[in-house]
Design brief:
The protein is mostly beta strands. It has a single domain, classed as Calycin beta-barrel core domain (Lipocalin). It is about 0% helix and about 75% strand.
């Protein structure tokens, strides 16, 4: 097991039925722990400037991605292509049932960094919410130092 400092570029988009698209771009630092058969990516993100940052942990294996978000908007999701995952989305305004169905998963991560891309349908309380696409680019922080 080895833990390395990384830079994470996240581009995410959501497409709803009303043709309104939401895009989010985030550049942050974090840590990548390399295990025998998986990578653990940990970072903090801020959804709202009035709230403290939330810890996010993403575990990547050859065929699946799991994401755990702590804090005020707590959730856990598992993405495996062609499979549905059901869980809870906890917010300060109440809890919701959530379900994700992963339609695409492309894992190009190595111990030197790389890309992770996945697409999924998100349902909240049994109703379609949006189609999501997420791309993470991982770069070792010391990659360009000499």
């Amino acid at each position: 097991m080895k833990t390395l400092p990384i830079l994470i570029s996240i581009n995410s988009s959501a497409h709803r039925d009303d043709d309104k698209d939401e895009a989010i771009a985030l550049l942050t630092s974090g840590l990548m722990t390399i295990n025998d058969d998986s990578y653990l990516i940990a970072y903090e993100e801020t959804l709202d400037e009035s709230m403290p940052p939330q810890q996010v942990e993403i575990t990547v294996t050859k065929n699946s991605v799991s994401m755990i978000r702590g804090g005020a908007y707590e959730t856990s999701m598992v993405f495996t292509k062609g499979q549905r995952f059901e869980g809870q989305y906890r917010t300060p305004f109440g809890d919701m049932e959530l379900a994700v169905y992963c339609t695409r998963l492309k894992n190009e991560l190595t111990a030197e960094g790389g890309d992770l891309m996945f697409s999924y349908q998100l349902d909240l309380n049994g109703y379609f919410a949006a189609m999501h696409e997420m791309e993470l680019k991982i770069t070792l922080q010391n990659e360009h130092s000499a």
